[in-house]
Amino acid sequence: MTHATTVWQANRSGGLTGAEALIETSLAAGVDVCFANPGTTEMPLVAALDSVAGTRAVLGLFEGVCTGAADGYARIAGRPAMTLLHLGPGFANGIANLHNARRAHSPVFNVIGDHASWHLVHDAPLTSDIVSLASPVSGWVGTAASGAGLAQLTARAIAAATAPPGCGATLIAPADFQQEVLTAPVDVELPDTRLRREVAAEVIDPIAERLRAGERAVLLLGGAALDERGQRAAARIAAATGAVLYSETFPAAAERGGGLPDLDRLPYFPEKAVEALAKAQLVVLAGALEPVSYFGYEGIPSLLAPPGTVEVLSTPEEDGALALEVLADRLGAPEPAARPRPDDEGLPDGALTPQAVGRIVSAMLPEHAIVSVEGGTCGYPFFTASSRAARHTALTNTGGAIGQGLPAAVGAAIAAPGRKVVALQSDGSAQYTIQSLWTMAREQLPVVTLIASNRAYNVLRTELGRHGQSRPGPNATALTSLDGPAFDWPALARGYGVPGTRVETGEALRRELGRALAADGPQLIEMAL
Amino acid sequence: MTHATTVWQANRSGGLTGAEALIETSLAAGVDVCFANPGTTEMPLVAALDSVAGTRAVLGLFEGVCTGAADGYARIAGRPAMTLLHLGPGFANGIANLHNARRAHSPVFNVIGDHASWHLVHDAPLTSDIVSLASPVSGWVGTAASGAGLAQLTARAIAAATAPPGCGATLIAPADFQQEVLTAPVDVELPDTRLRREVAAEVIDPIAERLRAGERAVLLLGGAALDERGQRAAARIAAATGAVLYSETFPAAAERGGGLPDLDRLPYFPEKAVEALAKAQLVVLAGALEPVSYFGYEGIPSLLAPPGTVEVLSTPEEDGALALEVLADRLGAPEPAARPRPDDEGLPDGALTPQAVGRIVSAMLPEHAIVSVEGGTCGYPFFTASSRAARHTALTNTGGAIGQGLPAAVGAAIAAPGRKVVALQSDGSAQYTIQSLWTMAREQLPVVTLIASNRAYNVLRTELGRHGQSRPGPNATALTSLDGPAFDWPALARGYGVPGTRVETGEALRRELGRALAADGPQLIEMAL
């Protein structure tokens, strides 16, 4: 990893403020989108977003919208956006989606304004321990101690965030240093393009040997290995050796459809996952972590692969796609024949079911769409159907912090102008960051939000059943039901400036989805299940 | 402080689970309301909320609703509610309002489910450093290490939370210990009623001396000293000595109106606060902390009172009302004559202004209403007008974390059945926890939400002006404006099942507020400014 050293200096009469130096450095490092919900202690930075040209500032009404958008942006753009958040409590509202970003290995650059350094000791009402809040979701945390330090630490934070596999980096920017007028040039070290490490032959060869020897193998792809190259190489290996392919259960961004391999996700519930891996003698990880149970259940192992079967072909830091290609070459595996896209057997009419939604959305996806999937109700059926869809990129909730899908759709749309975004979203999880709809409306983003409306936290009903509560009592019913009252989704959408409608049948979904995909700005469709 | 020791034991065949032991202990300590947004790792606790009778479980669609409601509940009920939140990310969504609760000295008992203890080492997707997240907003954090430990630590957490001045206490409850079936009785130490410490004569007498000697004094009341007794005693002192009375700027819960003293709040902006205190030779703190500037501004001192003038009559831990009574007695101060409630000079018609809103809402408040105030636009004018209102309790945003007003209204309504609650709320801040409206609808709470709709983060416009940005550029304009699109508040309310309407004039506000106050369940009125 090398760094380009750049001398950066004040470039206008009257000098640059620390806030302006931060923004100039950020732009020089290629960060030009800022998802912001600022307050008083960020006003110099807000002013600097105008005095230094080049950053697109996008307002979120709630901080979780900003951090989730930065995650979605990073997954599609492959580089960080900035978030600008207000002190400890404002940052805290963004933690849940930074948790997801951390699990997605998304590079995110967080800037938090803090009180003036000399004011902190007085413990004013908004003072809090920001480092303690930021550390669990940041690979790097730093606090600037001068105006020049804001520029230097900006470069360091962005370098930390963008080094593979990517992480959140959080810079705390005291208000006085934002305002400080710099009197001398500042040297900063800008991060170079960070390449993923190549996997050594000593790692690849023994795996090739075991595959050649006919061991029953599973290839589990994750992270960057889920791009087109990685998947095509994995398909060669599978065709040559009979290895079974899986994608990690919650990929950050997976290319899907358009003739790519029909890559199932490893099942979510541990019994099914254990079953899927039970016969393997060799479980090869390419960019994926060792599969573990999402939750711990009495009597079910945390580690899902049979003991002693796991071999790491590539870590998330490494170039997994290249490693898979080298492995396929070692095996002399030819390109498998292209899979013809099957004729559609006709789309389902009548009352909507999750399966019908999965098939209809898959069939109607425009080429190169981005699909942000949150919630199991329609998410799993969509994945079942969508390997036959047009080429698209699927984003999932990597960390399990709810309220990720709509903000990620916002960020993805900003990262990829010209691509349609579909947010396939469960009703319960949509509520955590519902304010995303307003940012879609303000920025006129081409996002079609599909709400799977079953008026329940269905996954919790299932989990209650696992705890022997097949007939939940009144409190458990109240805590897992979203009825009484049911949401009026078209009204909520309209409240935020997004045209919304409600459908109950396959015919209506096809008609409204066609109309929504043809529209320019955001649209919402409540799918009553 | 004494503790009652109670032997608690399994009371049904088959034994009690750790989760049931937690709920039984919590009920025995007087905690019988649970604001919850649970997930998989809290399912045994959710089941226990039914198998152990006596807790009212209230669902919030977002965790900040739950924690803000627990804060509002504590302010009115004077005792903790439980929050039940899901792992680190779910808890993180509740941090902002726990920050406010901490600044309000509200007793709050947080329960966070965590992974099964034996599963943690595998770093499953939802694993995070919960202690690091919880510590900044908790006076006490503990992790149970057994099923019996859940009961014991519940008692200890509630004791910590309820010891004056009150704090948040956070119990981390691993899922396996929630499920563990207890085989032997468990002893727990239940907290006794915690009395505030009495203030010693050695503290009171020197202050009495200086007041008698004619020093120009300001009495700054805060915390529990803002109850009726404290205010009446302070009014006696003021009448006898000429001392000027102020309330802290953001009281947790202040009794107002109905003939109580006309107690101004110390001004928010530091220049005004410095001016208010400039002539004082003695600034007496009764339950209030030393006043500090809300933010640090270049050239303005952080400490607002003249150096050397501050004397502490009572800390937030102490019985400030009693101290004020003793001080008034020392001074031989008689009861001042009751202030007649002035005739209303007629309420304003025509286009709504913040001043008109303040006067109309004050005049129409029903007896013993609770008013949850968040946002400056109508908040300050309401305080100016409301000393002449009927007796009511005013709640304010103590910690500056935005999104506090609507959840606090939810909690206050649940704490005080039979009292009307008015949430006087700015549009920008309402968006952070907008999901509160749904809980109001589900629980059919008598909350009238009044939205001060000016379609801007006006306080930030003011702050930009303080940074010399009297004409904000395009990014600063975008980041401080809520137009483009404007919210449709009646639609948002309807989306959550709350009847909503919009008014533009004083006549219309009087008519709609009268109708809303007469209704049974929640209502929302958008006040277009």
UniProtKB/TrEMBL annotation, chains A, B:
Entry keyword Nucleotide-binding: no
Residues covered by the Thiamine pyrophosphate enzyme N-terminal TPP-binding domain: 17-123
Leader sequence segment: none
Cross-referenced Gene3D superfamilies: 3.40.50.970
One Pfam family hit: TPP_enzyme_C
Ribosomal protein found in the keyword field: no
UniProt similarity note: Belongs to the TPP enzyme family.
Name listed for the protein in its UniProt record: Acetolactate synthase large subunit
